[in-house]
Amino acid sequence: MRKLFLCGETGYKGEQQKAIFIVSAVDFVELTVKDILESIRTSEERFEVLKEALLSVKKYGLNTIGRIINSIELAYGRLAGKEEKKSEQIIGLNQLKELEELYVKRVRELSEDGLLLEINGFGIVFILVGML
Question: Can you spell out the DSSP letters for 25-40?
């Protein structure tokens, strides 16, 4: 797993941690999920894991799964991506398109239950739904 370093006060008076950069809980989850996905042998198995996660995601998980989908899109040079990065294409392009469709469908389903604006990091949800 990637090594992450936190910095700042630890909550104990006078104690400090030295670090390279700050990582939020959302960032940590995303990096952990990416590490797990990379450890899965085939793109088909990775796709099935992502699909199952997407079908069961709750409102507050839309940001994290959206960021993962976005990173795969960038690997294909889609949306804001300028060039392809084959090493980061963890699923096939057709599988990515299917995930995108499922993502938009899931966002619409979850938006029926309330506001999505209260999601931390709502921006990625808004961007993906608007572009797909």
Answer: HHHHHHHHHHHHHHHS
User: Rounded to the nearest 5°, which phi and psi values hold at 89?
Assistant: -85, 85
Q: Residue 16: helix, strand or coil by DSSP?
A: strand
Q: Tell me how far apart the alpha carbons of residues 64 and 43 are, in angstroms, rounded to a whole number.
A: 20
Contact of 132 with 99, CB cutoff 8 Å: no
| pLDDT, tens digit, 9 for 90 and up, residues 55-111 | 998 888 888 888 899 899 889 988 666 788 888 899 999 999 999 999 999 988 888
pLDDT at 127 over 80: no
Q: Contact, 61 vs 118, CB < 8 A?
A: no
Q: What is the band of 6 on the pLDDT scale with cuts at 50, 70, 90?
A: very low
Map residue 116 onto helix, strand or coil.
coil
User: pTM (2 decimals)?
Assistant: 0.73
